[in-house]
Each structure stands twice: as structure tokens, then as C-alpha cells.
Design a protein that fits this description.
Helix content: 25-40%
Oligomer: single chain
Largest sheet: 8 strands, mixed
Number of domains: 1
Structural class: alpha+beta
Number of strands: 19
Strand content: 15-25%
């Protein structure tokens, strides 16, 4: 007979072991698991993509790391719990009314779609995963799918721990279904005939190779696809066109989140007229990605005032570093506490104009006080040991969860040196994430 509590104790021990194993692998194993030939095969899935891998290596040598990252299943579950808690709050009319009140008029439009490829970015700290920000149109998912498929065991000991965080072979189908769901949510039937992937000067974008992979995904489903600059679009007689051909759905990769510049006038007009399905869209950015929202999501008193259930508050408050808006009234207090803070522009992206407080100069601080910034308690990122030129180096890492409709579809890491994530670090870049196995705890505990 199993002793009372033995199964529970065994489960706790197994979870603790998985956390310890993931940490030990990240800090102690600097083996290289990337198979370049398998990566080439994943990237060049059709003749039109021939040469893509070589071009990435030439022009973007630090896009992919040759090293994998490990986490415990408990960490992934904690991330999923935070995502679900955020979704619970965002669904509340009181929350929507508060955050939309400060957003441009275009964000008030609710056409139905939810927004594909939300990016929930985490630092994995000793206390658990910390959600540091949410992004709409989060890049890299297609590239990370290819990267995860291109791993090989670097040693026999690593084999049990190469467990993907999701079913990799099902991702293309799931991602295509996300776009078709967006299509249906706006009241369309069937599927779009043509999708435009839109970004400013797309061929100059660092993640342009991913746009080509999305074109392949759509065409494999019988949907025509094109990648273009918003200035190449025209809107007339109720139809959005590119080079004279109608566009039904736009996969929006623009960082002009509220479609405010003259260059996107055609796209904005088509969206406001309901002539196209746009995903992600301005409303999604206002609800999720404005970093001022983190000041609400990390404040237990404000959450309670909105009617958020206590169980949700108990998930969010320890899972999001305390964040406040930078105001003149808080200037003295924030400056004094700056060494423990990270400062971000409310509408920023890609870590641009973001600063660690301990690196601040008075000149930069005056710019921050000019408005539009939040101060977030610094969540120390975990590290991954990476072999560079034959020696081990400790790189920082963050974890991106690609989310649709509240469900994590894929988890990937970014390895870097410096204040913020970047693709300039030798040995750094995107890295696949695998679940460490609690070896030795799989069997039932012995009975007394």
C-alpha cells in the first residue's frame, strides 16, 4: 500500500527534478544540436525557396543559434496559466473600456478577428516565468518551426530531453487554421482567394525570409499570396488591390500599429470599410500590446476594481513584473529606484528606445520624462551556455510564446548579449525550446 501523500510528494519531486535538469542543461551543456542540412531542407520546401538558407547565412549570420534551450513542463504550464489569465482580463468590458479610452478611434472598430501570432515574451526567473511584454504581429514563428525540425542529438544523454513543446508536424495546419478562423470571424465563408503579407519595405526587413515561408504556406492551401509594401496597395470601388489584383485578407506585419501614416491610407480605408480581413489589427494592439496595459495587469488593486476574480489576480501579480507609467509625479521616486527598473516606450517594439535603469544617463532620463514610457521592475533573464569559437559563453535568453485565441501554439527562445534582445550576438539568435525530462522520477515511488 502506498503511503498517504507519497504520490503527491513524488509529483513534487519530479517537478523539482525537471526544473533542476532544465537549469543544469542550460548552464552546463554547450553542445551544438543544429543540423544545417536539415535546416536547409526545412527552409527550402519548394523550388521557389531554393537558396534561402544560404542567403540567410550570408546576410543574417546571427538569426539562428546552433544551441537548443531547455525548460521544465511546469514552466510551460505556468506560462500558459499567465496567458489564460491575461485573456480573462482582456475579455472584461470594464478593462476594454479603460484601455480603449486612450487609444485612437480606429482601435474602437471591432470587426471580429482576434489577431494571429500574438507574442507573449517571458523571462524565466528563479521564481518562475515573468511576462515582460505582449506584442502583436510577433515575428519568427515560421523560422522557429523550421529550426525546431532541424535539431539532432549532440550526445546520448540529451536524447530524453529533446521533447518539443508542441506537435511540430501539426503547426502548419494549425497556423493556416488560425488565418481561416480570422476569415470566418469577420463573417466570410469559404477561404480567401488572395492574401497580402504587408510590411514597410518588406525585402529590407530582417525577418523577410519568413514572409517567403508564409507565401509557401498559403499557396500550399490553394490561396494566392504576395508580400508587399503598403504603398503598393490601392483601394477603390470597395476593393483593395495590389498590382490590379484583389486582396481579400492582409497579414499585417506593420509597426504602424494604428495605421496612421499616409503610406497606409489605402489599407486603412479598406479596413475601416470592412472590405478586407486584417490580422492583427489596431484593436488587438490597444487591448494587448500597449505597454501601459502592464501597469494595470500587474496591479492587484486595479484588477480587483475591474471585477477580476481573485484566482486570476493571484496568477497575474506574481507572473508580471510590477509596471507603472512614468509621470512627472513619479520622477523622483523612479530615478532613485532606477537600478532595479527597465524603461520602455508604451508603443515601442523590438526593444527600441528601451533602457536598463542602471545604464541611464541624465540626458536619456529627460527624454523618458517627456512622456509615453513605463517603468517595469527588472526581471533578471536566465542564461544559456553557448560554445563560441571553442569556448563557453553565457548568453541571456528570453522565451516567446506564439499565441492565438489564448492558446500557445509554439514556444521559442532568443539568445543575446547586451541590454535587450538582438540578432547581433555570435552564437545567439533564435533557438528551439525543448522540455527536460525528469529522469529517474518516471516510475512510482517505492512503497514502504
Amino acid at each position: 500500500m502506498t503511503a498517504p501523500g507519497a504520490e503527491r510528494d513524488h509529483g513534487v519531486a519530479a517537478r523539482g527534478a525537471a526544473l533542476a535538469i532544465a537549469q543544469a542543461l542550460n548552464r552546463g551543456c554547450d553542445c551544438l544540436s543544429l543540423d544545417p542540412e536539415r535546416l536547409r531542407q526545412q527552409l527550402e520546401a519548394e523550388p521557389a525557396l531554393l537558396g534561402l538558407a544560404a542567403e540567410i547565412q550570408r546576410s543574417r549570420p546571427h538569426l539562428f543559434s546552433a544551441t537548443a534551450v531547455f525548460m521544465a513542463a511546469e514552466t510551460l504550464r505556468a506560462m500558459a496559466d499567465v496567458v489564460a489569465a491575461v485573456e480573462t482580463v482582456i475579455a472584461l468590458p470594464a478593462y476594454q473600456a479603460e484601455v480603449l479610452a486612450r487609444a485612437p478611434d480606429i482601435a474602437q472598430l471591432d470587426a471580429g478577428p482576434r489577431g494571429v501570432f500574438m507574442g507573449f515574451d517571458f523571462h524565466v526567473c528563479d521564481s518562475g516565468p515573468q511576462l515582460i511584454e505582449i506584442n502583436t504581429n510577433a515575428g519568427g514563428a515560421m523560422l522557429n518551426r523550421a529550426l525546431a525540425h532541424a535539431q539532432q542529438p549532440c550526445c546520448a544523454e540529451i536524447v530524453p530531453h529533446l521533447q518539443p513543446t508542441t506537435e511540430l508536424d501539426a503547426l502548419d495546419r494549425r497556423w493556416l487554421e488560425s488565418f481561416l478562423s480570422e476569415w470566418a470571424l469577420q463573417g466570410r465563408s469559404g477561404q480567401p482567394r488572395r492574401i497580402a503579407i504587408v510590411d514597410e519595405a518588406p525585402e529590407q526587413q530582417y525577418l523577410h525570409p519568413e514572409f517567403l515561408l508564409f507565401e509557401h504556406l498559403f499557396r500550399s492551401a490553394g490561396i494566392d499570396a504576395v508580400t508587399c509594401d503598403p504603398g503598393e496597395l490601392a483601394f477603390g470601388e470597395g476593393v483593395l488591390t495590389h498590382m490590379g489584383r484583389p486582396v481579400d485578407l492582409v497579414y499585417n506585419r506593420l509597426t504602424d500599429f494604428y495605421l496612421q501614416s499616409p503610406a497606409v491610407e489605402a489599407l486603412r480605408s479598406a479596413y475601416e470599410a470592412g472590405a478586407i480581413v486584417l490580422t492583427p489589427h489596431p484593436r488587438a494592439h490597444a487591448l494587448y500590446a500597449d505597454k501601459r496595459n502592464l501597469s494595470l495587469l500587474s496591479d492587484p488593486a486595479r484588477l480587483a476594481a475591474l471585477g477580476v476574480p481573485q484566482s486570476v489576480i493571484d496568477c497575474l501579480v506574481p507572473g508580471i513584473p510590477r509596471t507603472v507609467e512614468v509621470t512627472p509625479e513619479r520622477a523622483e521616486t523612479l530615478w532613485a529606484a532606477r537600478r532595479d527598473l527597465f524603461f520602455k516606450p508604451a508603443s515601442g517594439f523590438g526593444s527600441r528606445a528601451a533602457y536598463r535603469g542602471d545604464k541611464l544617463t541624465r540626458r536619456v532620463w529627460q527624454g523618458i520624462l517627456g512622456g509615453g514610457y513605463v517603468a517595469q521592475r527588472f526581471a533578471i533573464p536566465s542564461e544559456r551556455r553557448v560554445r563560441i569559437d571553442g569556448t563557453g559563453n553565457d548568453l541571456k535568453l528570453d522565451i516567446r510564446a506564439y499565441v492565438y485565441a489564448g492558446e500557445i501554439q509554439l514556444v521559442a527562445a532568443r539568445l543575446y548579449m547586451g541590454q535587450t534582445t538582438n540578432f547581433r550576438t555570435p552564437g545567439g539568435g533564435f533557438a528551439p525550446v525543448f522540455l527536460a525530462s525528469a529522469m529517474g522520477f518516471a516510475a512510482a515511488p517505492p512503497t514502504p
